[in-house]
């Protein structure tokens, strides 16, 4: 059984025991969060109706907060002497899926 959930602005395919990395969520390590299911596949049966999906809960546990890879941003304008170097590291949360009911 697996579900496609909305997590952190993206859609993720998850099943029980999977570890996924999503955009930063509020909460401490060990806290439980619920993810919004978009589609559920249980063997041969596929559930995508909104009324049926409201009955289903996908729970996950926060494993830890982390940062993504460093991204370097360079800006340059010709003939003006304008150069700028910036960096960015996305804040992420690692989740472990504990149940699909």
TrEMBL record:
One of its GO terms (cellular component) is ribosome. It holds the Pfam family Ribosomal_L21p. The keyword Ligase does not apply. This protein binds to 23S rRNA in the presence of protein L20. Belongs to the bacterial ribosomal protein bL21 family. Part of the 50S ribosomal subunit. Contacts protein L20. This is Large ribosomal subunit protein bL21. The gene is rplU.
């Amino acid at each position: 059984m697996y579900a496609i959930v909305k997590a952190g602005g993206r859609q993720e395919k998850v099943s029980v025991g999977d570890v996924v990395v999503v955009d930063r969520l509020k909460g401490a390590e060990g806290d439980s969060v619920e993810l919004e299911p978009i589609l559920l596949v249980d063997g041969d049966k596929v559930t995508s109706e909104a009324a049926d999906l409201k009955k289903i809960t996908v729970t996950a546990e926060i494993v830890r907060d982390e940062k993504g890879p460093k991204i370097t941003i360079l800006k340059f304008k010709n003939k003006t002497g304008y150069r700028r170097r910036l960096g960015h590291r996305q804040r992420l949360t690692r989740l472990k899926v504990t149940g699909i009911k």
